[in-house]
Amino acid sequence: MPYSRAAQARANTDEFVRISRKVRTVPSPADTPPAGPAGPVRSLVPARIDRMPWSGFHTKMIAALGIAWILDGLEITVASSVVAILTRSDTLNLSSGDAGLIATVYLIGQVVGALVFGRLADRFGRRGLFLLTFAVYLFGSGLTALTLGQGLWWDAFLYLTRFIAGTGIGGEYAAINSAIQEMMPARFRGRVDLLVNGTYWAGAIIGTLAELYLLSHFSASLAWRLGFLLGPVLGFSVLFVRRNLPESPRWLIMNGRHKEAEEAIAHIEQAASRTGRRLQPVDASQAITIAKSPHSGYTTLLKVLFKDYPQRAVLASTLMITQSFLYNAIFFTYTLVLNKFYGVPDDRAPLYLIAFAVGNLLGPILLGPLFDTLGRRRMIAGTYLFSGCALAFTAMLFRADVLTAATQTTAWCVIFFFASAGASSGYLTAGEIFPLEVRGQAIALFFAIGQAAGAGAPYLYGWLIGDGSDRGRLFIGYLIGATVMVIGGLVEAVIGIDAERKPLESVARPLSVVKNTTDRTPPGGEPGPGPAPA
Questions:
Q1: What is the DSSP string of 181-240?
Q2: Residue 515's pLDDT band (cuts 50, 70, 90)
Q3: pLDDT for residue 12 is more than 50
Q4: How far is the C-alpha of 196 from the C-alpha of 482, rounded, in Å?
Q5: Engineered SS bond to 249: which of 264, 399, 408, 450, CB 3.0-4.6 Å?
Q6: Angle, helix 310-331 to helix 405-432, in steps of 10 degrees
Q7: What ranges make up the beta strands (E) of 79-140?
Q8: How far from 3 is each of 6, 76, 273, 422, CA to CA, in Å?
């Protein structure tokens, strides 16, 4: 007689308890020994996560956490769309420089938010931070729409609200990437992380279409406010879904909260049992020994980067710097190129931007699974090298003046179909190749490094574009962007980490894991074979 779902779930739980007792792991919430004075404990929690089948829990997690990048793309697009409107006397009467400063302040807020909240995500957990950072974003973006007048004080209020919204989204990068990498089964980790990061471009599409509609149906003084309210309205409903997500079980066990880790993993296993597939037992050899370690700050991170993993630090920083430079250079001057060199009117340029965004969105979705099958090194190096070489070829066509607005956009769509997947993999790499205790801070630091390195690219390329009379200057700029991406691809090909389908603990041993004779991941060294995911 077949099991009912409830009976199946109880049977799975009993089986895990029996296995845990055999290897002296943390058996159940009631029997959990404390960390610290009681000594190290053994746990199968990471292995239990990695052998999970896909379930409704994972789908819900993508929907609840992926909204952050949709909102980021929406915010950037809306802010870019209303720059000219905010300079009008019937709106905020800003100068062109003051209007452009809105995006700059938002990006600065992202960097500050990533560094501050990245540290807090490692200290207080992933769940608490992705709730807090999301609330900060909703608050800041909602306040932006309440900029009611003109003058110095209202200008300061506007910039403050954009800074607050930016800090919230910046904090999301660290907390969410950490949560996804730690709670997704190893065989799905790459494609899911790329998918979530790639949804930024879904937000760009939504923002573009929404602004076109709002500007054609409402007065300018109302349309820009409604644009900044889109994010809070869309995001508020998702906040309640996030509240039902558990804390990362991996983070819990590494911080001595074994009882809560068991409760969290039981929640995920219960969702998996509803798929009708029987959860396979976990081999006792996959247990890890954990001793609670002191909380790690940026001082610990710097030690990890410069002493234990200097080569990986070079890898992560190179990937983040190169993709940030290219995207900031091309995306923020995209419509300017269409206008100056191809004569596309201002009111039609956003339509070309939609096509560009579609190419960027499809890249991580369609290529993402290959990062888990063909592998990280091949796919990251391949996407970087292809996009760099293709950009150089397109630059020559641009200089020869044989492209039209449509063919230029088509070429960019193909280039960034690959570049988008490579760029998203930068966040994946920055998280999974460093220990759990500093993962959030590592993502935040390399995000900040990338943003800082790419901050000057829009200004540089804007200067190269000029009045659109000299294609040779922009040709040089495109060759610089192509070279930057080729460098990123070559670095990945030489020192990339083959992390596909491997448990995080075998890619980078957590600082709180007690080394023993079966541990094959020495600090600063390449990971050994380690236990493979079921």
A1: HHHS-TTTHHHHHHHHHHTHHHHHHHHHHHHHHHHHHS-HHHHHHHHHHHHHHHHHHHHH
A2: low
A3: no
A4: 26
A5: 264
A6: 160
A7: none
A8: 8, 51, 11, 45
CA dihedral 390→393→399→405, nearest 10 degrees, is -40
Q: What is the dihedral of CA 340, 344, 347, 350, to 10 degrees?
A: -90
- Tokens standing for residue 479: 């060759």
Which of 18-32, 331-345, 515-529 is the most confident on average? 331-345
More confident residue, 4 or 456: 456
Place of tokens 């990890």: 304
Give the least confident one: 172-181, 453-462, 486-495: 453-462
Instruction: State the pLDDT at residue 39.
Output: 66
442: helix, strand or coil: helix
396 or 15, which is more confident? 396
Within 8 A by CB and 6+ apart from 409, the residues are 338, 352, 355, 356
Phi, psi of 11 (to 5 degrees): -65, -40
Checking if the pLDDT of 166 tops 80, the result is yes
Question: Which residue from 49, 30, 33 is spatially nearest to 41, judged by alpha carbons?
Answer: 33
Which range, 133-147, 245-259, 476-490, has the best average confidence (pLDDT)?
476-490
- Which residues lie closer than 8 Å to 380 by C-beta, 6 or more apart? 319, 371, 422, 425, 429, 489, 492, 496
Q: For residue 245, what are the CA distances in angstroms to 63, 265, 376, 445, 504?
A: 11, 11, 28, 26, 21
Largest interatomic CA distance in the chain: 79
pLDDT score for 38: 52
Q: Which residues, at least 6 apart from 377, have a Cβ–Cβ distance to it below 8 Å? A: 492, 493, 496, 497, 498
At residue 180, what are phi and psi to the nearest 5 degrees? -65, -45
Strands 41-43 and 288-290: antiparallel
Looking at residue 531, what DSSP letter applies? Answer: P
Q: What is the pLDDT of residue 321?
A: 95
The rounded distance, in Å, linking the Cα atoms of 426 and 354 is 24
Taking Cα atoms as reference points, which of 521, 516, 518, 515 lies closest to residue 503? 521
Model pTM?
0.83
